[in-house]
Amino acid sequence: MSKMVCITVLASLMLFAFGCGNPDKRFQEPADAFVEPEAPQTFMMPEAAEVDRVEEMAMYRNMYRSNLEKLVQYYTKTGDQMKLSWARSELKSFDSTPKYKYIMEAIIADPDLEAVDLIIEADELYAEAEKIYKNANALIVMVDKDKLRLALNKYNEIIGLYPTSDKIDDAAYRAGRIYDHFKDYNIAVIYYQRAFQWNVNTRYPARSRAAYIMDKRLNRKEDALTLYQLAYKYEKQFPNNVEYAKTRILELTAGDKGLDNDTTAVPGDGVKIEDVETP
Predict the structure, then answer these.
(1) CATH at 112
(2) In this structure, which of 189, 226, 235, 258 has its CB flanked by the most CB atoms within 10 Å?
């Protein structure tokens, strides 16, 4: 009897763990998908004043780190071991603390960029981001938010520093998943769109996720319809997505639009998500 109880409890725990990992089954994607998000945030397009302040903050942030490095060098030279340990500790703490990107690269980036160039530095940075991204979700039902933000900074850095790298679409999608996790839906949908704008053949279900957010999170049905059409046409490798897109297209159009005719949207002709007002 006790053996049966143990087996039942174990089965329940396994069901809970795997059931919570990615409850939204409409979206097929690589197995390292994140669990459902938490709390909504507000998004506004950056103004000139904000850009100035963020750039000034970044300048002082870099100066602070540079001065810490100089302190480490100075105390190494003078042999003051106690103060050297302090400076090293502070520098280590600074490097491990998430640095927020207040101006998101994909929002101000050119939607006509192409992910074509093999750039070693971008590949290395992407590998670092991927490692942090995956470690952040190592425990299935728990997510390390700080690691997510560290990974996010690196994905944004790739887009900002290497805008022609063949990793910018990957970085945009991954960043979109993180913004999605934090329920920054307006930002997430832009990153998803950038992924397929920058690489028409992106290997991720960016169109499906953008469509779902516009449809269910932001209540922008017209815009969602365009994105569902894109998903239906270009995400054949994700049959669940295609089937869901087909269902929503028929529902949103009351069945009066064909799914295989010339009215289907094509990449580049989709809604300009960044111009859509927040509900």
Answers:
(1) 1.25.40.10
(2) 189
Helix (H, G, I), strand (E, B) or coil at 268: coil
Provide the residue range defining the domain that includes 78: 47-102
Tell whether 206 and 260 lie within a shared domain.
Answer: yes
Please check whether residues 91 and 137 belong to one and the same domain. Answer: no
Beta bridge pairs of residue 165: 117
6 occurs within a structural domain:
no
Q: What is the mean pLDDT of the chain?
A: 77
> Minimal CA–CA distance to 193: which of 102, 269, 89, 254?
269
Among residues 15, 18, 17, 22, which one has the least CA distance to residue 37?
22
How far apart CA 249 and CA 226 sit, in angstroms, is 9
Residues 270 and 227: beta-carbon distance below 8 Å = yes
Rounded-to-integer distance, Cα 36 and Cα 143, Å: 10
The CA radius of gyration of the chain, in Å to the nearest whole number, is 22
What is the tally of structural domains in the chain? 2
Q: CA-CA distance, 17 to 32, in Å (whole number)?
A: 14
Could you tell me if residue 3 is inside a domain?
Answer: no
pTM over 0.70? The answer is no
265 lies in some domain: yes
The answer on pLDDT for 21 being more than 50 is no
* Band (268; pLDDT cuts 50, 70, 90): very low
